[in-house]
Amino acid sequence: MAPARKAETRPPRSRLRRGDTVQVIAGKDLGKTGKVLRLIPDKGRLIVEGVNFVKKHARRTREDRAGGIHEIEASVHVSNVMLVCPKCRQTTRIGHKTLADGTKVRLCRKCDEVIEK
Ligand SMILES: [Zn+2]
Questions:
Q1: Per the domain annotation, does 97 fall within a domain?
Q2: What is the DSSP string of the chain?
Q3: Which domain does 49 fall in, by range?
Q4: Total number of domains constituting the chain
Q5: Is residue 109 part of a domain?
Q6: How far is the CA of 21 from the centre of ligand 1 (A)?
Q7: For residue 47, which of 12, 29, 62, 73 sits 20 to 30 Å off, Cα-Cα?
Q8: How many angstroms does the Cα of residue 84 sit away from the middle of ligand 1?
Q9: What is the pTM of this model?
Q10: CA 61 to ligand 1 center in whole angstroms
C-alpha cells in the first residue's frame, strides 16, 4: 500500500516575474519599491532589490578576505508585495487574458493594460 501523502501546503502561486517592479505592503520595508531579482517559487518568496536587507556576519574565508558584516537582501513573502503597474504606476493585482492569437498575457486589474514580459 502506498503511504498516505501528507497534505501539502502549497506556497501561493505568484504571478510576478523577474524584473517586475513591486511595492512592499507589509513589514519593516512597507512602501519601498524595487525590482524583483529572484523568485523562489517553492517557498512562495522572492528577493526584491533594496528590500529586506539583513546583516550577515561572515567569517573571513579564502573567497571573502574581509569577512565582517555584509548586508544582503533576504527574501520576502509574495503576499507582502504587490506589483506596481508599469503603465498606471499603481499597485495592482494581476489578471490574465488570452489574446486572439492564443497567447496568454498578464493584465493590470486597475487600468486593464497588458503587462509586458
Ligand atoms: Zn495599470
A1: no
A2: -PPPPPPP-PPPPP---TT-EEEE-SSTTTT-EEEEEEEETTTTEEEETTSSEEEEEE---SS-SS-EEEEEEPPEEGGGEEEEPTTT-SEE-EEEEE-TTS-EEEEETTT-PEEP-
A3: 21-86
A4: 1
A5: no
A6: 12
A7: 62
A8: 8
A9: 0.81
A10: 47
